[in-house]
Specification:
The chain is of the alpha/beta class and 401 residues long. It has 13 helices and 23 strands. It starts with a strand and ends in a 5-residue tail after the last helix. The protein binds MU-OXO-diiron.
């Protein structure tokens, strides 16, 4: 049975939720599911914005047929070719033989890469600034390369002032009956997932996201319709301001994120002691055991907090495996503008601290605090003063405490 949601008089959500997917893109856990959003505009012409992942293809097809109400589909706008949004394209070309696929040249190249189909006669290529009149509505195409794939574009409906934003402004989590961000307590229940989505999906491409934000700043926007998560119709500034911070790699909060890797609990003990001394000084702290918490959560936290502490044992003369994966992930996502302190541990020879510093040192504008702590197997009483000094150095570099 179809399950659609009305967005405006002319626009219907025809997407679907997947709560059985374990790992989005094979790497990001989605314990609360994920939505694949697709939107049908019923104007003089009918226009579908993107399709869905193959996992929810059946529900999507039912939804689309119901929302069309027996009309033909005139246009499919493909804004992003990643298969979680493009899996339905070939099926729609068969199901709706008069449908025209609207996309840019790069998208067409990707379609040829992903799928075997001779579709050139069915394609209308658009570029930056092109428009498509569908009757009451006029669609303006805005290129958004590397947000987060090369072919990405977004679409602005100047009649209702809607921005179809592709993956931008998306969020992990199934919709659970709601469709608008103001129907849920977004700040409390979803902002962490929006940040995790942004940091891991688009975090590497801050400059490109900023360039899209500059283009959209010139538009009057009543709603943002992303390809995952909720539609924004109220307090749009809430998510826009977060995107400005995240894409500029500016911390949201002053405080210390401590990520630690500990084999026998001694590195963890040092991390705990540091957290206690930081709290004594009034600092906010969060802690992650990198062997337990997925890297995507910690990458997201690193985008939030101003100060980062990495505490790692040495393993096979290198950084402990899970910590090394995290550090590589942070560097891959372009983490920058952070103050970093390091605690290393090693029973034979401490190597992890220097190696962490070397990897993060390649990121932009990382300030390493003097006074890294080096532990031989376990922290001893004389080293408590080093913990105190690190807490002083961290809080001393806070802007306002
Ligand atoms: Fe939701 Fe980049 O695909």
């Amino acid at each position: 049975m179809h399950c659609t949601k009305k967005i405006t008089d002319d626009l219907t959500w025809v997407g679907a939720n997947d709560r059985r997917l374990a790992m989005f893109e094979g790497v990001y856990s989605v314990p609360n599911g994920v939505s694949y959003n697709s939107y049908l505009l019923n104007d003089e012409k009918t226009v579908l914005f993107d399709t869905v992942d193959k996992a929810v293809q059946h529900r999507f097809s039912e939804n689309l047929a119901e929302a069309l109400g027996g009309r033909a589909l005139d246009y499919l706008v493909a804004q992003h070719m990643e298969p979680d949004h493009s899996a339905g394209i070939l099926d729609l070309l068969v199901r709706y033989p008069d449908m025209t696929l609207v996309c840019n040249a790069k998208t067409l190249a990707f379609i040829r890469q992903f799928y075997d189909a001779d579709i050139d006669a069915r394609v209308h290529i658009v570029k930056e600034g092109d428009v498509l009149d569908t009757g009451k509505h006029t669609l303006h195409f805005i290129m958004a390369p590397m947000v987060h794939w090369p072919e990405v574009m977004v679409t602005y409906d100047s009649a209702d002032k809607l921005l179809f934003s592709a993956d931008a402004f998306g969020c992990f989590g199934a919709l659970n009956g709601a469709i608008f961000a103001d129907e849920v307590d977004f700040s409390k229940d979803y902002m962490d997932e929006a940040r995790r989505y942004y940091a891991n999906i688009a975090g590497k491409y801050g400059a490109q996201v900023q360039s899209l934000l500059k283009k959209t700043a010139a538009l009057e926007i009543n709603m943002i319709c992303p390809l995952h998560g909720f539609v924004w119709r109220k307090n749009i500034q809430d998510i826009l301001s977060k995107y400005l911070l995240w894409s500029g790699y500016a911390p949201e909060e002053t405080g210390v994120m401590i990520a630690y890797a500990s084999v026998y609990g001694n590195t963890e003990n040092a991390a705990e002691l540091l957290a206690c001394r930081l709290r004594d000084r009034g600092a906010k702290t969060v802690m992650f055991d990198v062997s337990v918490i997925p890297a995507s959560d910690i990458v997201a936290a690193a985008f939030k907090w101003s100060h980062l502490v990495f505490a790692s044992t040495t393993y096979n003369a290198g950084i402990f495996v899970t910590m090394e994966a995290l550090i590589n992930d942070l560097a891959a996502h372009n983490i920058q503008n952070r103050t970093v302190a390091i605690i290393e541990n090693g029973s034979w020879a401490c190597a992890s601290g220097g190696l962490i510093r070397e990897k993060l040192g390649k990121c932009r504008n990382i300030t390493f605090l003097d006074g890294s702590i080096s532990i031989k197997s376990s922290l001893k009483a004389p080293q408590l003063s080093e913990i105190e000094s690190m807490a002083d150095a961290l809080t001393g570099s806070f802007p306002n405490i």
